[in-house]
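Protein modeling request. Please complete all fields; requests missing the sequence field cannot be processed.
Requester role: graduate student
Desired output: 3D structure, token encoding
Chains: 1
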Amino acid sequence: MMELFLDGSRFHLRDETGRSYPDLIADVAEPRGLGRASRTMEDLMDVWSATSRERAPTDVFADLAADRAVVIEEGGEPWTADAERTVGLADQVFTNGRESELPAAGQRRQLDRECTEYRLAIEGEEGGVPYRSDVIWLVSVPYLIRREVRDHPAGRMFAITELVELEEGAVTEEDLSPPAV
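Delivered output (181 residues):
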């Protein structure tokens, strides 16, 4: 589970599972839209060992206007990161107007909100092999309420990101301020 606090160009993302910062970034940077997939037996063993122990959350604080980001992995010491790389983390929840370039495919209700459904395809090549990922977005501007990505044509690989609670209102300075580095 993740929590995201946002105020203007500042945000704080907390990953309750304690995944590493590189893993969080890889999930949003993978071109197929399916997140970072395990490709080797070592990758699978890393995932299994990480899920078998309890970990402290990972926190990412970003101030995009100041080009500053602070990361705290698993309750460790804070360190700075490239703020621009963190943008994809907030894009999991906010559309930033990207839906305006897509044709609407219908209306649905989700989280007690009217949402517009958008469908698109991500196509490319990976290791010399062409791929296509079919994507469905449910958007209640400015929020990306649900994102479903399926590998085409079989759909055996898929990723679903969904808001389960949306609480608008007071974000405090404490929510957005990282500890000193």
